[in-house]
């Protein structure tokens, strides 16, 4: 499978432009099943040509949200607008959205060709037009030789492509993808992620993807909405979600992170240099921590300090300044991941902090090993303070 | 004794018990002698006399027509009932409906037969061919409903949603997607319904009238008078018909299975 | 997950046709007859044809009708020891037959479930095949074997197990009925047992063995308890229709073999006493339904 190198991803951020009109708008949408609230008073804007991800654990309501857009579920209250038009009461077969199902839902009694042509036939297109469009789609997903096969005669990856081609054939305004790569193995998944981005970019469509796989969401999306228990916790770009999570839940859900509970001791300290945010300090069970951040809380408030393992440096030698952003402990466990090694360091007060180190040289015996006394150190801009 | 040997002994005895009586019956239908215990040589005379036995042939014709009609109507109604059971989890009167689907499966036939008869009398309907068809439809539709229901329960609903999503309205979706995929279950439901109708003595006896004597009623009235080689011959033909049907059905199932395995190989190799 | 799919036909009016057609059919041809049977069981025997007084005479006569309702037929059921003993005898025969079916069916199902998976579908097919052949034919086949001058006698004479002047005396006795019932119902017992036993995870027995449990003990401690749903299902599927069985006692049983299905048949076709036959049916129905309902409730309480 040759990786096609499409154009470089453009700078794209309509959500920062207050004058931009949203393409899809969920307006105070609530969906309940009996006593259970699947989606709770949720408001969300998605812009045209955006690759948008709904990310969350199973049961967080992300699939319900997508199914409401597709028309398989009606909101209990609230509105869903597509290009300003209220979708209430429009049945799924009249909506300009198409969906790629988690199970692919390929019709087992039809060939690949017939599957792709199915949606076009519903529109009453001319036979020749349908044929041309099907061929175009087969070419797009590189499945031309398999046109006459039945789904049962395809591999998992090929089925995924047929499902994609089928949902794209009608040129939907929005393509909905429900865990589109969940059934593929890791290698194939990574390749397909890039292909999906290519296709989305080439066709200029709006993609809405539901996934529980954070790596997938990070790779493909322009923006990610992290969901939990029917509400959106944070909507932001992948980098913002990772580097500036707005609460413990998001910080913990995306990637690996150390969270240290503490109290604010001082705020509004002088910036390191002009243009940097002010410095605030906090104390966490004796550890003095300083962070470059506009203080989100008052002095004395209980907050959490969060720092990612790869931003914590580990060394056998004592750093120059051990007064702030430094800790001493013993190597408790090592996870060797190949590209990285993760060290679990037990602090003198018993807490565990994880530090990751890139394995830049081909040493089989790493210099730091079990039981070593080590120092941990992180810069002022490594972590952030969370109040929620 | 090792479990393996114990198992094969058990199976041998049980299958001998299941099959010997039928085999004996078939063998003796070719007996030249009229006595059941005496083998008088191979002969087809009972089949010949069968052919000229008009009342028996009439009964067979009635049975065949009742079977086809009631199985067909029963399959349509049973499929609708199965759709109701699976696709409408909540509607007023669902519990009695479920009860009415399951009850005929265990209801003693004498009760079903008697109650049907009393209905026809109360409604002042002349009993005959059509009353038997209605009675058979009523109990066979429940069997069809159970078979189709179990297929629908494993049916991947996202296939229908995909069709809707691609612009296909609900009714069309049913005929283009759902029906073709549950068709094997519907066909086996029809076959079961047909066989049950073919087999039924009790319900038919209650609901039939003049001129609509079915084969089981005919056989029953003759059996009460004793074993005759002619009845052996009728039974042999029926057994042959049913066995052929079942074997054809299972061979086609086997072939579908082989095709599936072949498909998986094709998919794995990535070429056809 | 909360994502329950909605009905595909939600907006379509045709959904009500799907429900209504089979519903009406069953109400008309299955439920309504039971009300009629109940009503007739309370009416008087009349000489006319149909041999009972009319069911419906309009609402004007409703009061009149109610005043005439009586339990005469039920009283005569109770008063006549024939019916009582027919009920009891039916239950006895059904219970013994079900036990016999379990004793034969269980080892058979177990042997099938333990057979190599390649031949299991064939074994399954061999159990089902006789079920597709006519019930009547299968019962009929036994007459030729069991009757005094039949094949069993001949076979026993041939191997010298019986003196030439003796004959097998099974036909037209309860024994013949048991043989006929076990023979006819065996597939119904084996299939639920087999499906319960086949689902059994083989590693459970390995685990038991690993923990020091000998095979016979493992059977009673693991296999049997886990197959109980199959045992119960098989027993219900057999017991209920056997109680109302007509063909087998009629063709294989003797004059003293009392079964309620046969009594009902005779009452109906022989004596043409329809109200009494209806009363017999109502009582049989109650005798079957009440235990099932109690059993179901018990089951639900256990859960």
From TrEMBL, chain A:
Enzyme type, top EC level: translocase
Xref: SMART domains: AAA
Listed PROSITE patterns: ABC_TRANSPORTER_1, ABC_TRANSPORTER_2
GO MF entry, a single one: ATP binding
Enzymatic reactions: ATP + H2O + polyamine-[polyamine-binding protein]Side 1 = ADP + phosphate + polyamineSide 2 + [polyamine-binding protein]Side 1
Keyword list, A-Z: ATP-binding, Cell inner membrane, Cell membrane, Membrane, Nucleotide-binding, Translocase, Transport
Domain ABC transporter: 24-254
Tagged with keyword Translocase: yes
Annotated InterPro entries: AAA+_ATPase, ABC_SmlMolc_Importer, ABC_transporter-like_ATP-bd, ABC_transporter-like_CS, Mo/tungstate-bd_C_term_dom, P-loop_NTPase, PotA-like, PotA_ATP-bd
UniProt cross-references to CDD domains, sorted A to Z: ABC_PotA_N
Pfam families: ABC_tran, TOBE_2
The enzyme's E.C. designation: 7.6.2.11
Gene3D superfamilies (alphabetical): 2.40.50.100, P-loop containing nucleotide triphosphate hydrolases
Alphabetical list of PANTHER family matching this protein: PUTRESCINE TRANSPORT ATP-BINDING PROTEIN POTG, SPERMIDINE/PUTRESCINE IMPORT ATP-BINDING PROTEIN POTA
Function: Part of the ABC transporter complex PotABCD involved in spermidine/putrescine import. Responsible for energy coupling to the transport system.
Family per similarity comment: Belongs to the ABC transporter superfamily. Spermidine/putrescine importer (TC 3.A.1.11.1) family.
Subunit structure: The complex is composed of two ATP-binding proteins (PotA), two transmembrane proteins (PotB and PotC) and a solute-binding protein (PotD).
Name recorded for this polypeptide: Spermidine/putrescine import ATP-binding protein PotA
Organism from which the protein derives: Rhizobium oryzicola
Taxonomic lineage from the root: Bacteria, Pseudomonadati, Pseudomonadota, Alphaproteobacteria, Hyphomicrobiales
From TrEMBL, chain B:
InterPro entries: Bact_Polyamine_Transport, MetI-like, MetI-like_sf
Localization of this protein: Cell membrane
ABC transmembrane type-1 domain span: 60-252
A Pfam family recorded for this sequence: BPD_transp_1
Membrane-crossing residue ranges in chain numbering: 9-30, 66-88, 100-123, 129-148, 179-198, 231-251
PROSITE patterns recorded: ABC_TM1
Similarity comment text for this entry: Belongs to the binding-protein-dependent transport system permease family. CysTW subfamily.
Name of protein: ABC transporter permease
Species annotation: Rhizobium oryzicola
Taxonomy of the source species: Bacteria, Pseudomonadati, Pseudomonadota, Alphaproteobacteria, Hyphomicrobiales
Automatic annotation (TrEMBL), chain C:
Pfam families: BPD_transp_1
Tagged with keyword Transcription: no
Membrane topology: Multi-pass membrane protein
Compartment(s): Cell membrane
Major subcellular site: membrane
Entry-linked SUPFAM superfamilies: MetI-like
Family, similarity comment: Belongs to the binding-protein-dependent transport system permease family. CysTW subfamily.
Protein name: ABC transporter permease subunit
